[in-house]
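Lecture 7, part 2: worked example. A protein chain together with fe (ii) ion.
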Amino acid sequence: MTAPPLDVRYFADTLPDADADLAFLLTEVAWDDRMRARRTASFGVPYNYSDQHYDPLDMPSRIAMIAARAAEYAGHSFNNCLANRYETGDNTMGFHKDSYEGLDPASAIAIVSLGATRHLVFRSIDRAYRTELALEHGSLLLMTHKTQRAWTHGVPRTASAGRRISLTFRCFEAGESAEPSM
Ligand SMILES: O=C(O)CCC(=O)C(=O)O
Ligand SMILES: [Fe+2]
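Predicted complex, written out as structure tokens:
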């Protein structure tokens, strides 16, 4: 048996001003407390994520600049940013596949990381294979649709990890999420 291809690309040090980006996100964002495992926020087109609905919200210019940066690496633009705030190593994300419902199937999903390094663990759908990537401050990871079909991913608990924020960028087709708000 061989592991399915893990179609991801990792880039270190992609942001010119990562420390200021982190400071901005910590202080200027209205974080949502509806999820138990971590806090979230959504910018751009409306989004239904993990059973929660997020209304449309203009991207602040600092986030729009990071989206533009991610677009340079991905080769296409992004119109939603779902931010995750992990206050300590006890904040986690369980294994899941990112849904491509409403997304351009040819687009990538980008994860920009700020703050403490956390590991993104990938597990093949048949659970036979496991691999992980350290997501460092200022890094960018691109994942394709193919990756979501063959692997799940998650951010496990990490003893004594410091604060981390991830910005996940998605490209919804026609600027609309799968289930537009009424
Ligand atoms: O925080 C991370 O790096 C993982 C984010 C993620 O997988 C997601 O938002 O779907
Ligand atoms: Fe994900």
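The helical segments are 18-28, 61-74, 145-150. Residues 96, 98, 153 surround fe (ii) ion (ligand 2) (CB under 6 Å). Keep this in mind for problem set question 3.
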